Amino acid sequence: MTRGEDLDPKDWSAFREEARRMLExxxxxxxxxxxxxxxxxxxDLPQRYRIGQGGDLVxxxxxxxxxxxxxxIHPRFWGWVQGTGLASDLIAGMAGAxxxxxxxxxxxxxxxxxxxxxxxxxxxxxxxxxxxxxxTTGSSQATVIAFQAARVRALPEVRKMGQGAVRLTxxxxxxxxxxxxxxxxxxxxxADNLRQVPSQAGQMDPDALSRIIAEDxxxxxxxxxxxxxxxxxxxxxxxxLNALADLAAEHGLWLHVDGAFGAWTRIADDPWxxxxxxxGRADSIALDFHKWMYVGYDCGLALIADEAEHRAAFAARPxxxxxxxxxxxxxxxxxxxxxxxxxxxxxxxxxxxxLEACGEAAFAAAISGNCALAALMGHEVEKHAAMALGAQxxxxxxxxxxxxxxxxxxQSQLNLAIAQALQVSxxxxxxxxxxxxxxxxxxxxxxxxxxEEDVLAALAAVERLAVEFGPR
Length: 472
Ligand SMILES: *Cc1c(COP(=O)(O)O)cnc(C)c1O
Fold this sequence. Notes:
Layout: H1 12-31, H2 45-48, H3 57-65, H4 88-99, H5 109-125, E1 132-136, H6 139-154, H7 158-161, E2 168-172, H8 178-186, E3 194-196, E4 199-200, E5 203-204, H9 206-218, E6 222-229, H10 241-251, E7 254-258, E8 284-288, E9 300-304, H11 307-314, H12 348-358, H13 360-383, E10 388-389, E11 397-401, H14 408-425, E12 431-435, E13 438-444, H15 452-469
Parallel strand pairs: 2-3, 2-6, 6-7, 7-8
Antiparallel strand pairs: 1-9, 4-5, 8-9, 10-11, 11-13, 12-13
The structure holds pyridoxal-5'-phosphate (PLP).
């Protein structure tokens, strides 16, 4: 039997040299990011990634990895809702790599850092002091965690007995993210038991909600959950969260707020801050650090207003994970009692580094600045003879058409062609969405690197392509 050697470098001075080259390459990438737009994936990239080729690792990373990023680090990227990343992620990545913390629980430093990050966020959101939370892969996972807590409140025996024939029903407005539907499917409520409540002037109609709940109750359903949206993914719209909190109290529902990106208006200036007024009255909030706090992927957070309800949904420790008074097995609470995962990475470190390196005020200014740039984009679109907004700019999302004078089909074709051409050329990234069936260009600005000149240059490129591609 051969006994393997450890996998650490045999020649430390050679490894130091290699690591320093990687650090320089990473710093170049950060400093030069404006000049390094995304590049189409070359045909032979899968070949180049085949395992077992050896060669100079850093050289291969510089040639085959760094150029083929997804674009979201670039200042002219506004597709979907993606985060930019931060220079502090590099520092956090180095520190995190060499302690390799497992955040399932136990008593070590990283656990206390996660608590600090959760507590800071809890305060910003205005949740009560006893509230708890757990960092997640993203808002999708945070939503599952929050909904499970809501389900356990509605059916205290559900962890043991399952849901049986009980038909739980949930309620949300029209702009609700697909993560809500998916979470309801996963926890066994079923997508058909998500009721879409009609809205009036972009906000949930309370009379309609009361009517639908009464209908559901009369057919034997058990209404349990109201989902509010703070920042809809399509248009950046916000439910009236104070009104939803009143409705949830009136009907005995758990109020969950999907604040994946929009929750961060809490630290922005008015008028954007007031969009999320009332969020602190929620029973649970799902939000992301990797979108509008710009922190590297991945990091989301499930916040639950009542810690006892959070634990009731997840706590369970088999004998081999038994806690202790002191030592590494000490420390309580353990995060494995607050979510799905047992082994968990050290997501808090990059959030902590970001806030300590840049300061909260810089994030507040960047978030407000993104909203101001979306407003500027909207203003420029309105000034333009041929372009028109598809919807009012409320927060950080601007949806518009390049040629409002064309029939709907021709508009759709043109807008889709423009989005694609700009993505391929590397000039700017818009995604598209449909407004009353017409495909339009959509900029979701969660990008601390975007400047006014980026917005103006991208609109000039849209104008140029509209002439090139459009009917005369
Ligand atoms: C992105 C998003 C989600 C899902 O969050 P992930 O972090 O991608 O899992 C849910 N809701 C809204 C409004 C979002 O924008």
